[in-house]
Structures are given as structure tokens and as C-alpha cells.
């Protein structure tokens, strides 16, 4: 029977819950409550374990493309045939294609919604970045010449900014395929003026171009179980959601140009000289050092002669989500084979003379290092080639090919920073083959699923293969300056890509997720559990379309570590880690001979709970320990047990021990494990690790007691900067005064 007090309490709880729902709010959720309804409900397509379900499906699109680039006008003219396969459990009445080049079309949505200011003395070349004004006569965007079915009949289509809907003559049922063609053209842009992912770079000294073609053809949107058509407009920042398929591509360029692309070259005998072909074949069997296929001297000669003839390069790529290519007569070309499991992909670099000697020394080696480390941590690299192409101030990725910056001075010298930046960007962009080119996440909505995971593995590759260059990028220590920023100006990691401030996009999508994963691996889970779970995620979702919940659930499913608190704090909030070691008390058991027959021994000097006495409230250990005594266990506490606790044995175990009571305050709001460094009077040190679950009852303040054999002289929380704690000043005891703090920071 309930008491009046219990009944009143129940009524109050019901009223509060009803009020919360009436305000369209969820009832209070603690930091350790399960994500529950925050994540989508599992179903037969995506299971509660984070794996693809028994009814998982995805669409497919195959392409046959012919394109020609005019080296004088920079116009690309193309024709494509797309075969689209409907594997969805529903009929389709229309198809959606992406027209990414329309981001440069007149009156595009990106320009219309760009904000900016007018500033005095702004460099003319940066006017567009500051104010959004681009004083250029360039007219971008696609010219769609025709959209036809397999019989040549025109298909109705509607262009909405960067999206094009093609209406089908009859519904596509499950299992149907539909073939249609699109003819188009557009003028490539100068990437020095327009901040695009492809474009060209012009070299005035020799009058030549390096072309990088990206988002250059109309591409199918993703249609999936999660939201149907993913046809969110391309505004420039949020990248791409794409469908897997096979590509056969013919690219016509001047005969003295070298072409690199997503896929394997099908007609090497037609486009290479006999000597180039021999070196090309030699490179496929060379593992120790790159083979020079086109030398710098050859490239310099072609820069002068400029052939007027044309050649068509043919490539084939299987099971890829996109296709990109680069070409120039300026290209030096080197290549070597890489052993990855039972495969030997060909690592290849294309670069103008302006990249040497740095590129000849480092580029292809960096490809190899990335392929090897990423393959160990995820899945074996499945593709036959991997290109790194050099052009200024760039870092962009596509299946089997990426475009990278990092240029030495004109005299060939370069700084350590240039070397680091160049190697780092190549590792990062080659690494994107795994995320999102293979583990095919939706970049338009969740940048962190490719950029964050990839930055984490880039950091790991640099740590393992380039320890002399590895820094703090993507680590908890490196993310502290960002995490210390104004929270009201931040967005959580779980924000759609285009809704993140441009100056915040790098930390939010790249380095904060990487720092979180580093913390997860090194401190929360441990390398063994983390690596196996991370690999499980890659294996489950290779060549599929994962969503955030699939990653979160897989990491828990494969490790038996409850991480809902971690995802909630790091990914769904803008909280930071700031643990204040607010109080330390030092105790020792009072030494005295206890009479086992006596029922009680009075407390002589305070107790652990009150903390009264010499040690209480001090800023250091100078007052010495506070003494306490233990009373015999009262008879009533034994309850129904017939045996009795040996009180003297308990006292004996604590004799001479140093007992420390530490109080921690969660100032930053982000719950965290505790890493405590104890320094003892004899100079020795000990690291103690406490799981984040210590905060589960009180998320704001906790007190914990530690028993130590030796006397402690110093205590530091997060001594190795692995927790991303934003304020080290409140992490130590004895308390450091302002005058000593700079020295403390240097020592720690």
C-alpha cells in the first residue's frame, strides 16, 4: 500500500512528464542515458547491431562516356550513356541527376545565399572570398544539349539549380533497368579565381595548363532506404552522395598530354611511345622505388612544341562511385607497384616540373604508405591503381585519383612545413579511397563520416610512417584551441555539412571527429577493441551506403563497450572537457592498539566524510595528513549474517597507508574518463585510469577515495593531454599560483 507521500510524488512526476511533452520536448535526458529514439529505428534494411539487414538494397548506375577537352578554349564536350538499375522495393516514375557544374552558373543559389562584407584594402584576388563579388566574365554551368532514351527519343527533363529530373516513359519496377543518354558541354574554370574542386591551373612562363576534371558529367543521385532520393542542392561545401557502378570512359586530348584517371588504362599501346610503354610495364613489377615513365626533360620538351594532334585515352573502372581525370603536356610520370595482401595496385604520380624535386622524392612513396596502413586498419585496397596529381593549393579526392598541393620554391628548396603539408595532403586524399569512395557515406549531409574518419587514419599513417613529421593535427591535444572557443558559435559534429560556418568546417568535420576517435582508441576502448570494431565497420559497409547510426551501433556491437554517452557528448553537443581537480584531502588511519572485545572506538580526529582537520581545504600537502579512526562494526549492520567482519584486520590493512580524497568538477560539461598522474615522494610516478562512467550518478561533481602505499607530492589530471581538457590550470595539486603556471605548463 502506497503512502500519501508516494502518491503525491507519482502525481508530480506524471504532471512534469505531461508538461514536457506539451512543450514539444523530450523528458530530461542525462549524459549517460541511451541514445534510444535519437537514432533511427532498426529495420530489415539496417539492423540494431549496425550491420546491413537481410533486406538491404542499393541502386546501381553504369556509364559509357566520351569526352573531349579543347586546350585552347577549355571547353569540355561530352556524351554519356547511363544504364540505371532499380533494386528498390518500389517503382520509380522519374530519375534525379546531379548537375554540379551549375554551382558556377549565373544566379546560382550559392552566390545568392553567400554572405560577406566590404572591407578597405582587400587584395583583389581575394575579393570573392571576402565579399562574394567575383569580377570575372566566366560563364559556368552545363549546357544540356539533349536527354534521350535508348531509341533516341527525347525524354522530358526539368533542371532545378544543381539537380535535373528526368521523367520516365513508364514506371521502373523493382528489378528493371533503364538506359538513356545525355549530351552536354561546359567551360572549365580557372581555379585560382574560383574555389572549385576541378578546374585548371595556367603556367604563364610556358603557356601551358594542368587540368583536373571533377564533377564534370551529369551523375545519378542516390536513391536509398533512408530517405528516397538524396537530391539536396549542391551549395559548394557539402560534398557528394553517389551510386556505385562501372565506367567505360574515352577522353580525347592533345596527343602530347598525359592522362590519369579513375580506372585502368585500356589502350596504352595507342597513346604511349614504345619506350614509355616499356617503362609502364616495368613499373608494374617494381616495388622498391618509382620508375620514371615520362621524365622532366621530356615534359619540358613537350611544353615547347605543343602538339596539334589528338589522342583518345580509354579507361575502365569497376564498382566505383565516381570518375575523375587529369591531363597536361607538363606532366612528369612515375609509378611503382605496392603489395597489399594478395593485390599489387600501381601507385602513380603526375606532376609538372614545378613540383620537383619534392614530388619525385615523396609523392608515390606517400601513396604506398597510405594504401598499406589504411588496408591494415580497414579492408584490403581493392582497386588496381592509385594516382596522386599535383597542382597548386589543392586537396581533392576521387576513386583511384586525387589532386594535391605542396610545391617547393622556384629553386627547388622547400621547408619542413612544405614537406609535411604535401605528404599529409597526399596521405589524406589517397586515404579517401576508403572513406567515402568504398565505405560510401553521404557527404552532402554528414561530412564527418568521411573527413573525420579519414583524418583519423591520416593521423595514424603519419604517426606510424612519418614520426618525424607527425604533429597534433586530429589529436585531443590539437583540438583544444578549437574546443576552448565560444560554444554559442559552434555547431555539433552531427550537423549537415552546408550548415557549418566555413571557418569552423575544418575543426568540426575533420579534426574534432579525429580527436574524438583518438580519445576513443587510446583512452576509452583501448587499441585492440577499437581497431577490431573499426575494421568491422569498414568490412560491413564496404561498397555500401552507411549512415551515422550504422557507425555508432557497429562500434558498440563489435566491442561490448557502451558508447552512447560518448556519441551524445562528442557528436551531438558543443560541450568541452574541463575537469577541475577542486579539492584534495590527505588522510592516515590513527595508529593505536585496538581491543577486539571493545564494541566502539571513538573517532579521535574527524573522518573521511567531513574532511575536518589539518589536511582539509589546503592548497598543498604542507599541513600533513589528517588522522581518522575506524569504529568496530555495529552489531545491527551484520543483519542476518552469522559470521562477523574482522575489524582489526581491516585496520591492519590500512595501517601506514596514505588515503587521498579527490573532488572533481565537470566544468566543461563533456563527461570524460579520468587520467590521473601520481608523483610520489621518492620521485616515482604512476598513471591511473578511471572510466567515464564514474560520472553516471552525478554528472557535475564527484568525489573518489584512493589508497596509496607511498606519500604523494603531486597530482595531475590529463598529464599527457589525451582527454582534450581545455584548461590545464585547474588540473593539478598542489595548486599552482599564477606566477608558477607558465613553468608548470612547460613541464607538463
UniProtKB/TrEMBL annotation:
<protein>
    <submittedName>
        <fullName>M1 family metallopeptidase</fullName>
    </submittedName>
</protein>
<keyword id="KW-0732">Signal</keyword>
<feature type="signal peptide">
    <location>
        <begin position="1"/>
        <end position="22"/>
    </location>
</feature>
<dbReference type="InterPro" id="IPR014782">
    <property type="entry name" value="Peptidase_M1_dom"/>
</dbReference>
<feature type="region of interest" description="Disordered">
    <location>
        <begin position="598"/>
        <end position="623"/>
    </location>
</feature>
<feature type="domain" description="Peptidase M1 membrane alanine aminopeptidase">
    <location>
        <begin position="411"/>
        <end position="570"/>
    </location>
</feature>
<dbReference type="InterPro" id="IPR027268">
    <property type="entry name" value="Peptidase_M4/M1_CTD_sf"/>
</dbReference>
<dbReference type="GO" id="GO:0008237">
    <property type="term" value="F:metallopeptidase activity"/>
</dbReference>
<dbReference type="Pfam" id="PF01433">
    <property type="entry name" value="Peptidase_M1"/>
</dbReference>
<dbReference type="GO" id="GO:0008270">
    <property type="term" value="F:zinc ion binding"/>
</dbReference>
Amino acid at each position: 500500500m502506497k503512502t500519501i507521500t508516494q502518491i503525491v510524488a507519482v502525481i508530480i512526476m506524471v504532471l512534469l512528464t505531461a508538461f514536457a511533452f506539451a512543450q514539444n520536448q523530450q523528458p530530461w535526458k542525462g549524459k549517460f542515458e541511451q541514445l534510444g529514439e535519437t537514432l533511427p529505428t532498426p529495420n530489415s534494411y539496417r539492423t540494431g547491431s549496425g550491420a546491413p539487414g537481410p533486406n538491404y538494397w542499393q541502386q546501381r548506375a553504369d556509364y559509357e562516356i566520351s569526352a573531349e577537352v579543347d586546350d585552347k578554349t577549355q571547353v569540355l564536350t561530352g556524351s554519356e550513356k547511363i544504364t540505371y538499375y532499380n533494386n528498390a522495393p518500389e517503382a520509380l516514375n522519374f530519375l534525379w541527376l546531379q548537375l554540379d557544374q551549375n554551382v558556377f552558373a549565373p544566379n546560382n543559389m550559392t552566390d545568392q545565399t553567400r554572405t560577406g562584407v566590404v572591407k578597405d584594402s582587400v587584395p583583389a584576388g581575394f575579393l570573392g572570398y571576402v565579399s562574394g563579388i567575383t569580377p570575372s566574365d566566366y560563364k559556368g554551368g552545363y549546357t544540356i544539349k539533349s536527354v534521350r532514351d535508348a531509341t533516341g527519343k527525347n525524354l522530358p527533363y526539368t533542371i532545378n539549380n544543381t539537380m535535373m529530373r528526368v521523367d520516365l516513359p513508364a514506371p521502373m519496377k523493382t528489378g528493371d533497368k533503364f538506359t538513356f543518354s545525355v549530351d552536354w558541354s561546359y567551360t572549365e574554370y580557372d581555379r585560382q579565381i574560383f574555389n572549385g574542386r576541378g578546374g585548371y591551373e595556367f603556367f604563364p612562363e610556358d603557356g601551358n595548363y594542368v587540368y583536373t576534371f571533377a564533377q564534370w558529367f551529369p551523375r545519378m543521385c542516390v536513391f536509398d532506404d533512408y530517405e528516397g532520393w538524396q537530391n539536396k542542392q549542391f551549395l559548394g561545401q557539402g560534398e557528394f552522395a553517389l551510386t556505385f557502378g562501372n565506367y567505360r570512359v574515352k577522353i580525347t586530348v592533345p596527343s602530347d598530354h598525359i592522362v590519369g584517371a579513375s580506372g585502368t588504362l585500356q589502350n596504352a599501346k595507342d597513346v604511349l611511345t614504345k619506350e614509355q610503354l616499356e617503362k609502364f610495364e616495368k613499373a608494374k613489377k617494381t616495388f622498391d622505388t618509382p620508375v620514371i615513365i615520362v621524365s622532366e626533360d621530356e615534359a619540358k620538351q613537350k611544353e615547347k612544341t605543343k602538339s596539334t594532334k589528338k589522342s583518345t585515352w580509354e579507361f575502365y573502372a569497376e564498382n566505383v562511385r565516381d570518375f575523375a581525370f587529369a591531363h597536361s603536356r607538363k606532366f612528369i610520370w612515375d609509378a611503382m607497384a605496392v603489395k597489399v595482401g594478395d593485390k599489387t595496385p600501381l601507385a602513380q604520380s603526375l606532376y609538372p616540373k614545378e613540383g620537383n624535386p619534392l614530388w619525385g622524392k615523396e609523392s608515390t612513396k606517400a601513396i604506398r604508405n597510405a594504401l598499406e596502413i589504411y588496408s591494415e586498419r580497414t579492408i584490403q585496397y581493392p582497386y588496381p591503381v592509385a594516382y596522386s596529381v599535383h597542382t597548386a593549393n589543392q586537396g581533392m579526392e576521387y576513386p583511384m585519383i586525387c589532386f594535391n598541393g605542396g610545391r617547393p620554391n622556384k629553386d627547388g628548396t622547400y621547408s619542413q612545413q612544405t614537406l609535411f603539408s604535401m605528404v599529409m595532403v597526399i596521405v589524406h586524399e589517397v586515404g579517401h579511397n576508403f572513406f567515402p569512395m568504398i565505405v560510401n557515406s553521404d557527404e552532402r549531409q554528414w561530412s564527418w563520416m568521411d573527413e573525420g574518419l579519414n583524418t583519423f587514419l591520416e593521423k595514424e599513417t603519419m604517426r606510424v610512417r612519418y614520426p618525424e613529421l607527425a604533429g597534433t593535427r586530429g589529436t585531443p591535444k590539437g583540438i583544444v584551441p578549437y574546443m576552448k572557443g565560444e560554444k554559442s558559435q559552434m555547431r555539433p559534429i552531427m550537423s549537415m555539412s552546408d550548415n557549418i560556418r566555413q571557418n569552423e568546417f575544418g575543426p568540426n568535420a575533420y579534426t574534432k571527429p579525429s580527436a574524438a576517435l583518438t580519445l576513443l582508441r587510446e583512452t576509452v576502448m583501448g587499441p585492440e577493441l577499437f581497431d577490431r570494431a573499426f575494421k568491422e565497420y569498414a568490412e560491413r559497409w564496404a561498397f555500401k551506403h552507411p549512415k551515422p547510426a550504422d557507425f555508432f551501433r557497429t562500434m558498440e556491437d563489435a566491442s561490448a563497450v557502451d558508447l552512447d554517452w560518448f556519441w551524445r557528448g562528442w557528436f551531438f553537443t558543443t560541450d568541452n572537457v574541463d575537469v577541475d581537480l577542486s579539492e584534495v584531502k590527505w588522510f592516515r588511519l590513527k595508529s593505536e592498539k585496538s581491543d577486539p572485545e571493545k564494541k566502539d572506538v571513538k573517532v579521535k580526529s574527524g573522518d573521511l566524510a567531513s574532511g575536518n582537520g589539518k589536511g582539509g581545504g589546503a592548497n598543498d600537502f604542507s599541513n600533513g595528513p589528517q588522522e581518522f579512526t575506524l569504529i568496530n562494526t555495529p552489531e545491527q549492520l551484520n543483519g542476518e549474517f552469522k559470521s562477523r567482519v574482522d575489524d582489526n584486520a581491516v585496520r591492519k590493512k590500512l595501517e601506514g597507508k596514505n588515503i587521498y580524497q579527490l573532488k572533481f568538477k565537470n566544468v566543461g560539461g563533456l563527461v570524460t574518463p579520468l587520467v590521473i598522474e601520481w608523483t610520489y615522494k621518492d620521485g616515482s610516478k604512476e598513471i591511473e585510469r578511471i572510466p567515464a562512467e564514474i560520472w553516471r550518478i552525478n554528472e557535475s561533481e564527484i568525489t573518489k577515495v584512493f589508497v596509496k602505499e607511498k606519500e604523494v607530492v603531486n597530482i595531475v589530471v590529463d598529464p599527457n593531454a589525451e582527454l582534450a581538457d581545455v584548461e590545464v590550470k585547474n588540473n593539478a595539486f598542489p595548486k599552482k599560483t599564477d606566477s608558477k603556471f607558465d613553468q608548470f605548463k612547460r613541464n607538463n
